[in-house]
Amino acid sequence: MNDIMKITTYTPDYNGSTAIVYAETKELSQHLNQTQLDRVRGLGEKFEEKWLEVQAGTDTAWVYKIGKSVDADARAEKMRQAGNTLVLKANAAYLDRIAILGAHVPHVAEGAILGNYQFLRYFSDSHKRKNSMAQLFVSKEDEQTLAPIATATMGALFARELVNTPVIDLTATDLANQAKEASKRHGFSIEVLEKKQIESLKMGGLLAVNYGSPEPPVFIIMEHKPKNATNEKPLVLVGKGVVYDTGGLSLKPSNYMDDMKSDMGGAAAVIGAISAAAEANLPVHIIGLVPATDNRPGGNAVTPGDVITISDGTSVEVMNTDAEGRLILSDALVYAK
User: Which residues are catalytic?
Assistant: First the structure.
């Protein structure tokens, strides 16, 4: 996975470009010179809810004026979007660092971290394509607030990496191995059920979807159970792990298959979420369940009209094999009970 941008404490001797979020121009006086302040006074109103670039000698400064009042969630999202825009500007200028100051710094930084993500695994010239931005500087107070957000972005970026990886390198077994590696990095427990174990649990939905595949299915069970958990019953996250979906015998048109490597996005989200929760040592008991397979039309593939039985004994008539998600998730939901 790509390196996540480093978060460093801002100090007065910082040397580099800055980005400042403000509501009143007077808030900028400690960061900008008089010429820059005059430029902000002259243009600031035109750049409400936008970044205005003002030069600071050899370094660049961007300022962002907060507009009308909105609720907390909407403001947080606006600042994430501003952070994404900021990191695009910084990379375009080939900067490797920027200090984010003023208001709403954690959410601006979150947007910058997420916006700096790249998937370069298959490029022979990835070193040339790699973004220049590598480091964010924030105040000590904001650094403390940003710590859990940075951990959450780690989980999100890990999920993106899984979603972007094609099935040739991410079979169901590969997905399980990725989850195992994550458990070692972040400290959660994991058990991976192989095909024989899945058969013993009579997970007919998962098995049926897998009939047409040369690759075996897996059922991934992850658990974060800290001693100080505040919940008596675990929070159970269930994610669809169809690592590639052709539609099975109800074959998708070819142009609808282009992005079907991402049909395991639910699984990626669950693996990323439990990785972040364990890394942050959240006081919450969490279980993550991922039924994983691909959905192909080969071999003894399930056919429209087949009747299968899922693990709680419920019989299901399959009328369209491209409705595979509900079949594998039904077994996972039964297991969750």
Answer: 252, 326
